[in-house]
């Protein structure tokens, strides 16, 4: 039983973890902040506004020591959600365990280390797919020999569903990722053939569980069947215990709503049951989101509520006392068989394209996810898919849980970032710099060969190298990468009906009055890689007749401002989901003004509180859209109104517009 935790600083996150363990939590699940995930130190320009926002910053060995101070790693099972820098964070963890006197070979836990899905969903990749897969492979080979109880890769279908995957796509693309990883390990010849089955046995999965209970339950049973067949036939694993589908789960966050957030508890419980009721496909580890995740960063009390849900199910109910409840069910067995067949068909399609890496590089997988997400949104917007409290049953009594919205979530201390900056500067000043340079030189040299990178990485960790320095050295050798956006060719993804037709007409008329087609720049400033919303807005805006400029994730404010000037856009739309909007958005506004484009209106969307929305409007933002506003088409209508107001055009009585008071309904 875990809760996904980490924020502000290593010391603050340590205190939170110790409190959760005292409440009966049986393992740790570490959330790292975006600079750590992407290999930047707190004092780098790229990290501005992002330090400590969505997880704990770990810039060096001292931070890892502080994170686990007073927690015996020898007896702990630790899950680390980390991918591009997984090898580095594991090295820091191992060194801290050694300093505690632990036997490294007995360490238990998991590094997610599933870099391929990052190109499709969360976006926390750094290097191109091939060298990234090498880092994954090297960590797997190292732990197989030195830390055999560790799960070195956690194939993560969770974020694929968050990015729009259907249950069949979630299974198929996760299995394709696993094939790419296992084939790479086998082909690297770092693991003896007779020990390869042990590597297969250490592969675990991290899945999603949506609210469609029966479908999700059958998906898990289908996952078990597909994995068993794959590992037997492709990899020759004859021991059924080594073919076991081992998975943990976090139930769906995509379906959590800002509107009537108390309904999220019902959703969370139903999704939890989907991965626990069927004994033959039961999750080995569960972590639940908090009811208020759609509002912001959960407080300790909110995380406690999620933990108590698991404890009531495990200790008060009789769920764990019986054999599988669904064996022999005609409905379940037929649905499972149908999903197995569909999953294999999609797996074979991807393999025919050259496998997961080739399908990522070609854009096939990303486009498939964006298309599925567009279809899902269209069903919600039309009412075909009911979301209680959002597109039906919206009338409700005031909720005492959100009576004070500003107190309903945890706010990261703004001083935490500056403290982290000072701390990393002090760390650099106190270390043996020649030893650092030697270790980094060894890392670069090893990266240019086919040797395993783990020994050189451990040397860097012990010498006091920082996260940014380790990643920077590898950037010099491997280069960087920008993945396909997935929106090309998806114009017309929704029929839209009369409402979209009205917005399309308003776009056409406004463009005619301005003498040019309306151009909308959609930007993702900062390190936030959750691009689903921005991609869907881009697709719908093209449907509505805008010329859309979308350059993908992780753009600096300077890049966005420069693109706005170069493309001569009529509006800039910013998507920020990491909580860094108060730092990044004003910077974009400032740079637009300095570039002579201060007249271009800026609108912002994200997980933004009403208090923050007011501050953004006061700073000059024309409109703020929050996650309560689920229908993209009327949002675009308001964007047309914003453009007309900014350019002094008459606003017809029925023209959708923003008055400065409608930022967060």
Structural account:
This protein has 665 residues and is α/β, with parallel strands linked by helices. It has 3 domains: 1-111 and 398-484, TIM Barrel (Alpha-Beta Barrel); 115-120 and 140-289 and 298-362, Methylmalonyl-CoA mutase (TIM Barrel), CATH 3.20.20.240; 497-646, Rossmann fold (3-Layer(aba) Sandwich), CATH 3.40.50. The protein has 24 helices and 14 strands. The strands form 3 sheets. It has a 5-stranded parallel sheet, with helices on one face. The chain has a 5-stranded parallel sheet with strand order 11-10-12-13-14, sandwiched between helices. Strands 6-7-8-9 form a 4-stranded parallel sheet. The chain is globular. Residues 656-665 have low confidence and may be disordered.
Summarize this structure briefly.
The chain contains 24 helices and 14 strands. The strands form 3 sheets. The protein has a 5-stranded parallel sheet, covered by helices on one side. Strands 11-10-12-13-14 form a 5-stranded parallel sheet, sandwiched between helices.
Bin the strand percentage.
Answer: 5-15%
CATH hierarchy class name of the largest domain: Alpha Beta
The quaternary state of the protein chains shown equals: single chain
The CATH homologous superfamily of the largest domain is termed Methylmalonyl-CoA mutase
CATH architecture of the largest domain: Alpha-Beta Barrel
Query: How many beta-strand elements?
Result: 14
Overall geometry: globular
Mean pLDDT: 91
Query: How would you write the strand order of the largest sheet?
Result: 1-2-3-4-5
Number of helices: 24
Give the helix level as a range of percent.
Answer: 40-55%
Query: How far is the first residue's CA from the last residue's CA?
Result: 36 Å
Number of domains in the coordinates? 3
């Amino acid at each position: 039983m875990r809760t996904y935790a980490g924020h502000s600083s290593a010391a603050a996150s340590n205190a939170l973890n110790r409190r959760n363990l005292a409440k009966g939590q049986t393992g740790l699940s570490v959330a790292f902040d975006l600079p750590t995930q992407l290999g930047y130190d707190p004092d780098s320009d790229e990290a501005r506004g992002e330090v400590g926002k969505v997880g704990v910053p770990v810039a060096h060995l001292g931070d890892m020591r502080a994170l686990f101070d007073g927690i015996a790693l020898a007896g702990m099972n630790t899950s680390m959600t980390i991918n591009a820098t997984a090898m580095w964070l594991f090295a820091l963890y191992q060194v801290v365990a050694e300093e505690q006197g632990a036997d490294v070979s007995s360490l238990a836990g998991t590094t997610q280390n599933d870099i391929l899905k990052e190109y499709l969903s969360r976006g926390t990749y750094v290097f191109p797919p091939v060298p990234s897969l090498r880092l994954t492979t090297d960590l797997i080979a190292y732990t197989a020999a030195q830390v055999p109880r560790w799960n070195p890769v956690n194939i993560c279908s969770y974020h694929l569903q968050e990015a729009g995957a259907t249950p069949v796509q979630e299974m198929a693309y996760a299995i394709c990722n696993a094939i790419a990883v296992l084939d790479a390990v086998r082909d690297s010849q770092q693991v003896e053939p007779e020990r390869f089955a042990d590597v297969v046995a250490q592969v675990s999965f991290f899945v999603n569980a949506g609210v469609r209970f029966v479908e999700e339950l059958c998906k898990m049973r289908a996952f078990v069947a597909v994995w068993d067949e794959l590992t037997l036939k492709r990899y020759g694993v004859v021991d059924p215990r080594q073919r076991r589908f081992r998975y943990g789960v976090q139930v769906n966050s995509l379906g959590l709503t800002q509107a009537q957030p108390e309904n999220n508890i019902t959703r969370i419980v139903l999704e939890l049951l989907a991965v626990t009721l069927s004994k033959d496909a039961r999750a080995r580890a569960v972590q639940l989101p908090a009811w208020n995740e759609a509002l912001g960063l959960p407080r300790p009390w909110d995380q406690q509520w999620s933990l108590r849900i698991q404890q009531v199910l495990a200790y008060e109910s009789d769920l764990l006392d019986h054999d599988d409840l669904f064996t022999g069910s005609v409905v379940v067995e037929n649905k499972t068989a149908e999903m197995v067949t569909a999953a294999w068909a999609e797996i074979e399609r991807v393999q025919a394209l050259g496998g997961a890496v080739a399908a990522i590089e070609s854009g096939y997988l990303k486009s498939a996810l964006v298309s599925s997400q567009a279809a899902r949104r269209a069903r919600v917007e039309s009412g075909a898919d009911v979301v209680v409290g959002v597109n039906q049953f919206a009338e409700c009594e005031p909720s005492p849980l959100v009576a004070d919205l500003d107190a309903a979530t945890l706010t990261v201390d703004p001083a935490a970032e500056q403290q982290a900056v000072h701390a990393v500067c002090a760390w650099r000043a106190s270390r043996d710099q020649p030893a650092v340079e030697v270790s980094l030189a060894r890392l670069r040299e090893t990266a240019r060969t086919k040797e395993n990178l783990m020994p050189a990485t451990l040397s860097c960790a012990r010498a006091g190298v920082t996260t940014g320095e380790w990643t920077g050295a590898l950037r010099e050798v491997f280069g960087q990468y920008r993945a396909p956006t997935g929106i090309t060719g998806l114009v017309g993804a929704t029929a839209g009906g009369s409402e979209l037709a009205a917005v399309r007409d308003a776009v056409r008329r406004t463009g005619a009055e301005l003498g040019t087609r309306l151009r909308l720049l959609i930007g993702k400033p900062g390190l936030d890689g959750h691009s689903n919303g921005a991609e869907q807005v881009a697709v719908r805006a093209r449907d509505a007749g805008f010329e859309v400029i979308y350059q993908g994730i992780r753009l600096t404010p300077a890049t966005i401002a420069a693109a706005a000037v170069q493309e001569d856009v009529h509006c800039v739309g910013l998507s920020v989901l990491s909580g860094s909007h108060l730092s990044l958005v004003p910077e974009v506004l400032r740079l637009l003004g300095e570039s002579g484009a201060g007249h271009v209106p800026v609108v912002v969307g994200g997980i933004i509180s009403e208090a923050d929305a007011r501050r953004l409007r006061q700073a000059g933002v024309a409109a703020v859209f929050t996650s309560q506003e689920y229908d993209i088409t009327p949002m675009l209508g308001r964007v047309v109104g914003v453009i007309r107001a900014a350019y002094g055009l008459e606003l017809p009585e029925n023209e959708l517009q923003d008055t400065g008071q409608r930022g967060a309904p």
